[in-house]
Design brief:
Layout (H helix, E strand, L loop, with lengths): L8 H15 L1 H7 L13 H21 L8 H22 L13 H7 L9 H30 L6 H15 L8 H6 L7 H30 L7 H13 L5 H26 L6 H11 L2 E3 L1 H19 L13 E5 L9 E3 L9 E5 L6 E3 L4 H7 L4 H10 L6 H4 L5 H17 L6 H26 L17 H10 L5 H13 L6 H20 L5 H9 L6 H10 L1
Parallel strand pairs: 2-4
Antiparallel strand pairs: 1-5, 3-4
Helix pairs in contact: 1-2, 1-3, 3-4, 4-10, 6-9, 7-9, 11-12, 11-18, 12-18, 14-17, 17-21, 18-19, 18-21, 19-20, 21-23
């Protein structure tokens, strides 16, 4: 009888993905697993503990796998290192019971239960039958989520008041899209086939009813209980979340100082660009306000969707073969309009594993029908090409050479956001942002990411504003000062600024990963260039970098430098 060999790290990682999908069909849907389409996760305390137990058992298997011959190869080492770091970070967040106070304007079970329908296959009657079953699962998923929040109340683990109020507003919008009690789920189900009309409508009404019950409980029970809780999380909780989103134990005071150094550098560049647009402008944001009113713009929601599609198509045509080598299926990306009622920031969803669903960029219109160009160009280089799309689609394309885990659920936020911000800077380096409007818009986006580091770290840790700051030097950060600072140093409208600050209170430590991740990508490129000298090939480096899967910032610079 032959002895069964224990698995290597990549096999452990891929077995984890299979087990995760069984517990979390939302993840399965994003990966394109058809069997996931009819189910939703268990968001109750027991369901969340099942995920934690899976992580613990996987780490035990990894310990054994890393002792096997062959586990020290580059491919096995990278995968094992990522799996250990990710599961350890996730367990730290779970064991601190953060899931018992997951309330905010994004990144909560309430959002996942709605958003997954936007990527669920909906082409055939069979697809819609699965959707009907998933709609019927919404009340159970929402009830589990509510049970977790109730346990959080019992343990005095409170969400922040401001994100709670925002989430209440979102739930109201989702449950009453027409002012007469018709909800988002009913609107979504209306696109289904007539053969399933009665079934879909009934299931959609039940799903909306579950959200109404959640909203009323949050309004009447939860919100009053957390009203006096702090909006910020403090250093210990912040450090734990920063590890989760960045894949490293950050020196938070150094990160805060770096945010300020980038603020001053970018501000100087912005002043020079603003002078080209509005000579004598008191601030760069006065010039940006002028562009918002008088600059180039795109009219209409469908018009801006088509314009953004054209922007990405042109970037692919120009960059493929010159600075990247793209497989045909990576070349496809779709521009879409985001469903109403979410956060204000644009976002990207990766392709399914088999590319049957392409990568997609999403623009929240926030009720607008007029879209200034300066605010869009570098943002779509970030969200689409050469940003999120090229990285995440390339991971899917080379999944067979990596591991399924590295190409999908093992992603580190700061790695992906850092690449996307690097992609904006790359397009500036390559001469795509010489137009003064577009370059000032790019710098405004860069400034927003520097300001994120300042206010996210500053307000959660209640740090002092430095003496060389143009804004309230010597005072301690509060959410109110953070919002005022952000509004004064951004061209974004008031509703966007409000949404952003609520986002930082909802998911502390995530927003700093853009600038810190970009710094890691730039440092890795510079070290690789120094190592190769005149033989350094940027195109080859890009493709090798995009084909190594995700890494935390602990490991990213080291691995990029080796390429």
């Amino acid at each position: 009888m032959s002895e069964t060999k224990s698995p290597l790290p990549r096999q452990v990682a891929d077995a984890y993905v299979d087990d995760l999908i069984a517990l979390d069909p939302v993840t399965g849907t994003y990966l394109g697993v058809k069997e996931s389409s009819s189910r939703l996760p268990d968001y109750s305390p027991a369901g969340r503990e099942a995920l934690a137990e899976l992580a613990r058992s996987t780490l035990a298997k990894l310990d054994e796998a890393e002792r096997r011959p062959g586990a020290d190869s580059d491919a096995e080492r990278r995968c094992g290192r990522l799996l250990r770091e990710r599961l350890t970070a996730e367990l730290a967040v779970h064991e601190a019971d953060e899931h018992l106070r997951a309330v905010g304007n994004m990144h909560t079970p309430g959002h996942w239960v709605r958003d997954v329908f936007t990527v669920t296959p909906a082409r055939t009657e069979e697809d819609w039958a699965a959707i009907a079953e998933r709609l019927r699962a919404v009340p159970g998923a929402v009830a589990g989520y509510r049970a977790s929040l109730r346990l959080g109340l019992d343990r005095k683990l409170f969400a922040a008041p401001r994100p709670t109020r925002t989430f209440l507003g979102q739930l109201t919008e989702w449950t009453d899209t027409d002012g007469a009690g018709r909800g988002w789920y009913e609107d979504f189900a209306a696109a289904g086939p007539e053969a399933l009309r009665a079934e879909l409508d009934e299931a959609a009404r039940a799903a909306t009813g579950a959200l109404v019950e959640l909203r009323d409980w949050l309004r009447d029970v939860y919100a009053p209980a957390v009203e006096d809780a702090p909006d910020t999380v403090g250093r210990e909780r912040y450090a734990r979340w920063a590890r989760y989103f960045n894949g490293t134990d950050l020196d938070l005071d150094e990160a805060y100082a770096y945010g300020w150094s980038e603020f001053h550098r970018i501000h100087g560049e912005m002043r020079r660009e603003a002078e080209k647009i509005l000579p004598g402008a008191a601030t760069p944001w006065e010039a940006l306000a002028h562009l918002a009113e008088h600059g180039r713009h795109v009219e209409g929601v469908e018009g801006v969707r088509e314009w953004l599609q054209g922007l990405m198509d042109k970037a692919i045509e120009d960059l493929d073969g010159t600075h990247f080598e793209l497989a045909e299926r990576v070349r496809k990306v779709e521009s879409l309009i985001a469903p109403p009622g979410g956060a204000a920031a644009p976002y990207y969803t990766a392709p399914s594993e088999d590319f049957s669903r392409p990568g997609r960029t999403w623009l929240p219109t926030m009720g607008r029908t007029r879209f200034p160009v300066y605010d869009l160009v570098s943002t779509w280089y970030h969200e689409g090409v050469p940003g999120h799309h090229l990285q995440l689609a390339q991971w899917a394309h080379v999944a067979g050479d990596l591991s399924r885990y590295q190409a999908t659920v093992g992603g580190v936020s700061a790695n992906a956001e850092g690449w996307a911000l690097y992609a904006e800077r790359l397009m500036d380096e390559l001469g795509y942002l010489t137009d003064p409007e577009e370059r000032l818009g790019y710098l405004d986006a860069q400034m927003m990411r520097a300001a994120r580091v300042i206010v996210d770290v500053g307000m959660h840790l209640e740090l002092e504003i430095p003496a060389d700051s143009p804004f309230h030097p010597g005072e301690r950060w509060t959410p109110e000062l953070a919002q005022e600072f952000f509004a004064a140093h951004s061209s974004r409208p008031a509703d966007f600024v409000e949404s952003e600050l609520t986002r930082y209170l909802t998911i502390p430590g995530q927003a700093i990963g853009y600038k810190l991740g970009e710094r890691a990508w730039l440092l890795g490129r510079e070290r690789a260039r120094e190592r190769h000298g005149d033989a350094f090939d940027l195109k080859a480096w890009h493709m090798a970098a995009l084909s190594q899967g995700s890494l935390g910032l602990d490991d990213l610079v080291d691995e990029l430098s080796r390429l």
